[in-house]
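Anyone else keep sequences and structure tokens together like this?

Example one:
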Amino acid sequence: MKTNFENALAPMPKPVADFFLDIKQHPDYDCAALKIQMTIHFRGSKVGGLNRGSSEWYFSRVFVADCGGIEKVERHGFKKMLKRPDHEYWGRSGAGSVNAFRIALGELTGVRI
């Protein structure tokens, strides 16, 4: 019987699924499959993840602020998004997003995947 994580990976493109497998196996990172999102944590702090419904990669506003990373995420094509007054984050979708997320994540945390 497949786990929720395995079921979430099944329909993903191979590079995206491989990225989440790399995250899951890394000692400093973890991820979880929620109803619509795949969340990523770094040493217990929520980083962001992937909204599977919209195929949008995102970084948490709090995480970006804590890492002083506005320039780092913008350099990789992430834009500040405001869904409602209390929901702000940095998002990117489209071609190259998984690689941009991977690189920006390594720059923000100092720990490459």
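And example two:
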Amino acid sequence: MRSRLSWVAAALLCVAPPALRAQDACADNFTWPEVGRWAEYSGLYNKKTPVTSRYAVVGTETRDGVEYKRIEMKMHGEQKNRDMVYQMLVPGGPLQLDQVAEIVMKMGDDPAMKMNGMMLGAIRGQLGKNSAFTDACRESTLVGKEKVTVPAGTFQALHYQSAKYASDTWLDPKLPFAMLRSTGKSHSFELVAMGKDAKSSITEEPTEMPGMGERSK
């Protein structure tokens, strides 16, 4: 993901085109909720693959005087026993994922593994460019406030639209992870449930993932 706003972008904000200012306003709705809060989404990826995803805050940690939150994303698809769990230790908010300090991942019943070194650096670069949060706001403008009903309930939402990417996103900043519904050329998903009792889905001590060019032992 991109960082929220570099100082260069901040300096240029006053002369940025309207679409960029609207994108920033959209992205500002995303903040990390309190530990234990979770939100579950259901929808289609590539318009054909059903996926259920759950975002949660499962812990906090302080490193060098900076507080980090442990964010977990758990994805459940059609394939049995192949749920994917990703945990990221990050500071700030969802737009600062490029500052991730640790990534742990677990596939189905396989052992949990921790990324570090060059691989973690490469992932930081990717997170600086793309994420579900920034993609939802990419070159978007505010349509207005609308009442939106999803399986999780009915909410007053901010409707953002991107003509360039043919996407519509509805947000409620008061909810964990803010997202209510998003539709686009290759995806559609909506909030189906949320709660306050999230715990880590990874209970074992993760092993170190082999670095680039290294072989696992």
